[in-house]
Amino acid sequence: MERRFACTACGKCCSGRLPLTLKDALAHAGRFPLAMLWTVVRPGAKSFALTARLGTEVRLGKRKSIAVQITPVSYLPPLMACPALAADGLLCTIHAEKPLRCRAMPFYPYREERDQADLLVPRPGWLCDTSEAAPVVYRDHEIVGREDFDRERQDLVEQAPVLKAYADRLLAMAPNVTAALEQAANKPQGGYVVLGFSAVLARLGQIDVVTFARRQLPVLSDFAARTAGLSAAGEFHRYYRDSAAGMERLLARHSQGAGTKGNSGG
């Protein structure tokens, strides 16, 4: 079995949420409005074991455990273009530094390699080339030309302990998160929970939280303004607004602390 695929740079996939590695999220904090997406995967799903390994596993009461995919994302409404997409809707303005997720498309490292075939079927309206003129990219359930896929998968493996520690801490401190996951698990098609990005920063070692906040705040404020009054983007607007307010409080606390330290030395 062989599958052919080539990107035609149609820009059709450059909208809505973009999954990121932690490294890419931090690198693009001055460009993307960041969030943490917790996606429920039920027992029996093909990706259950891989999801539990890259994310975490949560027991909901007397139910069987669920796996939770924990993904940093550029959090955009479904039809909103990526902020890195040029006005013509075709050109990526950060092509040389674009995230691993964009490089590894259409393959998806949260799936086992043997389960990638259906991702090579373009969605309605997408202009991907799957003709005989396109190169073979998938043969006998194995990816051909796999460098970008392997790089993204490796980053996910390396960040898994950080995300597990972040998840364990948050679940222990915030029972409302567990309740939200249970509600998502009860949806017929499964569901997800969107959480702020800042809570994961404490698990990232030498990250300068203030520098991060100064980069992320104008992005969140910009997207809050863009989505104001758009009924279809209400949940996104509230997220941007509330997250921007959180960044402002963080910077205010830092400013007050710096002022106190300065005054104590006089």
Task: Please sum up the structure shown.
This protein is an alpha+beta fold and 266 residues long.
The number of E-state strands comes to 8
Query: How far apart lie the N and C ends?
Result: 75 Å
Assembly form of the protein: single chain
H/E order of the elements?
A: EEHEHEEHEEHHEHH
**Main sheet characteristics:** 5 strands, antiparallel
For the record, the count of structural domains works out to 2
Alpha-carbon Rg, integer = 20 Å
Q: Strand pairing plus helix content: what structural class?
A: alpha+beta
- The stretches of 5 or more residues where confidence is low (pLDDT under 50) are 261-266
Give the % helix.
25-40%
**Please, how many helices?**
7
Mean pLDDT: 93
Gross morphology is: globular
Strand content: 5-15%
Overview features:
alpha+beta; three-stranded antiparallel beta sheet; 266 residues; globular; 7 helices
